[in-house]
Automatic annotation (TrEMBL):
This is LysR family transcriptional regulator. Keywords: Activator. InterPro entries: LysR_subst-bd. CDD domains: PBP2_LTTR_substrate. It comes from the Bacteria. GO terms for molecular function: DNA-binding transcription factor activity.
Length: 209
């Protein structure tokens, strides 16, 4: 069927799911569809869906009450060290947490789910990250990485390393965020026909089983 209008999507800024893997197939199927994407915390995504300010949301699922939302799980976020090869070189294919201690890091601001998980990963190993920069913007972290000011522990498969030929991401051993990421649609009315059709399409795309 013809889907015309705008899909309002709220998504957490850093996860091992690139939202374009959802939007590109939707755009190919529904060329008349427009997209509004907001970068939000998991709490803001849930709140925006509840207030009908968003049609669909991508967020961490540990705070999601499934009696209010339909959920498609999009997998666990695994992490690696994103760096610019002009400024940093590493001999191995993977890194251990204890090797990250001396590397200057750019971190997402405190309060974001991803940052909390990252802090926990360091703390639980008795490590303290060498944070030279904090920002609530992934883009500003990338700018800092490009200049060689720092590296950053970023999700694998989120597409960031494709932004420049000099960017590489090295997997960090045992680095995963315990809470999976998922796509959310609110169960109660009002919910738009666009939201429902796009959610059904996502189910076909991501629940191949």
């Amino acid at each position: 069927g013809q889907v015309v209008g705008s899909l309002r999507l709220g998504t957490v800024p850093l996860a091992s799911f690139n939202p374009m893997h959802l939007l590109l197939p939707l755009r190919e199927k529904y060329p008349e569809l427009h997209f509004q994407i907001s970068s939000l915390s998991s709490e803001q995504v849930i709140d925006g869906l509840s207030r009908n300010q968003l049609d669909l949301g991508i967020c961490y699922l540990d705070q999601v009450n499934t009696s209010f939302f339909e959920v498609i799980e999009l997998g666990t976020t695994t992490m690696g060290l994103l760096h610019d090869t002009r400024h940093f070189q590493f001999a191995s294919d993977t890194l251990r947490w204890d090797e990250l201690g001396d590397i200057p890091l750019g971190l997402l601001s405190k309060g974001m789910h991803y940052r909390q998980s990252l802090d926990l990963s360091f703390r639980s190993r008795g490590l303290e990250p060498n944070a030279v920069l904090e920002s609530d913007s992934s883009f500003q972290l990338i700018q800092a990485i490009n200049t060689g000011m720092c590296c950053a522990v970023m999700p694998l498969d989120c597409g960031l390393e494709d932004l420049s030929e000099h960017l590489r991401i090295l997997p960090v051993a045992d680095a995963a965020i315990h809470s999976p990421v998922g796509l959310l649609l609110r169960r109660s009315e009002p919910r738009s026909a666009i939201a429902e059709q796009c959610f059904d399409e996502a189910r076909v795309l991501f629940q191949a089983n």
